[in-house]
Amino acid sequence: MDNIILEKINRFTRRPLTEDEVYVFSVILCDNDIDRDCERFSDEALDELREKFIGRTGIFDHDAAASNQNARIFDAAVIEDGLRLTKCGKPYRYLKAEAYMVRTSENRDLIAEIDGGIKKEVSISCSASERKCSVCGADKDKGGCEHVKGKMYGGRLCHTVLSGITDAYEWSFVAVPAQVSAGVTKHFSSGNAVSQPVDTALAEADEELRRDIRRLAYFVEGTEAARSVGIVCRGMDTKQLITLKRSLESRRVKGTVRAELASEPEAEDANADFLMK
């Protein structure tokens, strides 16, 4: 651990701590992708959250009791993944934080569980002043509009864009499974608090279906088709994904495919840009 990290940590301590006294770990708090509630943070919201979460405490299950505090964020950064796009085709960005705990006999087991991947999923609590429709931009808290979250309009999935972050309250270790795309769960408040449970097994199955669909689209119509269908199918549920896959498989069987023109390894390489990682 270098001195810069210790300096950042010691901004929040009453006395300077040494390297042997602290345990440091990284945590992904949230991202800009559409979640299972058909909501997403705007890029501006991620930048606002980065500033507001520095110094915020980590607890369990959003229980705000002082005795439940176990860690604190001392640094954070918004990171862009140049190899990945969100469900609406934007560059994927996520908020990564650095947190610390003071090593004690009481939290020895907790540290072991973090290192062992047992304590992993987190959820954030914050306040968002704007909740806008992705289709028309109407504010959901000021009359809203006729568009429905989760439905397609002009080939685009309708969702709510969260922005105007006014405060960040805390982040919690939670027992619910992680959001697949970001490795976290999200909890925000704008009048009412919302939490987001995720079925990890189903989500992983959906991602496998999407990978199969992109490969089939490549074989049927080429690279551009794979790129287009890769974006569209991100907003589909399991039933829709299965229907689309069967349709592409049927077209391939009827001879409308280009599988004979490329070996499987070459097809995989051509499709690498569309894989969700």
Describe this structure in words.
The protein has 7 helices and 11 strands. The radius of gyration is 22 Å and the shape is globular. The chain folds into 2 domains: 3-198, no CATH class; 201-274, no CATH class. The protein has helices spanning 3-9, 43-53, 108-115, 200-221, 223-232, 238-253, 264-270; strands at residues 22-31, 39-41, 57-60, 71-85, 91-102, 122-133, 152-153, 156-157, 160-173, 187-190, 192-195.
Q: What's this entry about, in short?
A:
The protein has helices at residues 3-9, 43-53, 108-115, 200-221, 223-232, 238-253, 264-270; strands at residues 22-31, 39-41, 57-60, 71-85, 91-102, 122-133, 152-153, 156-157, 160-173, 187-190, 192-195. It is an alpha+beta fold.
Query: What letter string, H or E per element, gives the SSE order?
Result: HEEHEEEHEEEEEEHHHH
Overall radius of gyration:
22 Å
* Strand percent estimate: 25-35%
Helix/strand/pairing class, anyone?
Answer: alpha+beta
- Please count the helical segments: 7
Write the layout of secondary structure elements.
Elements: H1 3-9, E1 22-31, E2 39-41, H2 43-53, E3 57-60, E4 71-85, E5 91-102, H3 108-115, E6 122-133, E7 152-153, E8 156-157, E9 160-173, E10 187-190, E11 192-195, H4 200-221, H5 223-232, H6 238-253, H7 264-270
Parallel strand pairs: 2-9, 3-9
Antiparallel strand pairs: 1-5, 3-4, 4-5, 6-9, 7-8, 10-11
Please supply descriptive tags for the structure shown above.
277 residues; 7 helices; 7-stranded mixed sheet; alpha+beta; two-stranded antiparallel sheet
